[in-house]
Give the backbone structure.
Amino acid sequence: MRVSASGLAAERARLDVISSNIANANSTSTDTQLPYRRRDVILSSGEDGVQVQQIAEDTRPFDIKHDPGNPFQDANGNVLASNVQPINEMVDMMSASRAYEANIAAFNTAKGMIRSALNIGKV
């Protein structure tokens, strides 16, 4: 049950980061800051299951958008845009959601086995 619980926490962290990525997918650069950089959850295994090792920024380059109406455009009318790819994030979200569901099923199975073992002792 402890391992499944750690998996649930890890997948929840993944879902939180993916949600943040999707929410910031359309950000662009300004005079003072770069656009949002995609983040990813790095997991590690241990004796008690899975732990979030770190949340790392994706090092892929920013996208360049042609947006001549943007007040922060360069001389060619381009602005830097976030390196988040919404379709990839949706695939990651589906994967994390299914892994979360699998951990719930494993947790409930372990709970049912423990309950059955306790009922055997009552007889």
In short: The chain has two helices and four strands. The CA atoms of residues 8 and 72 lie 42 Å apart. The first helix runs from residue 2 to 23.
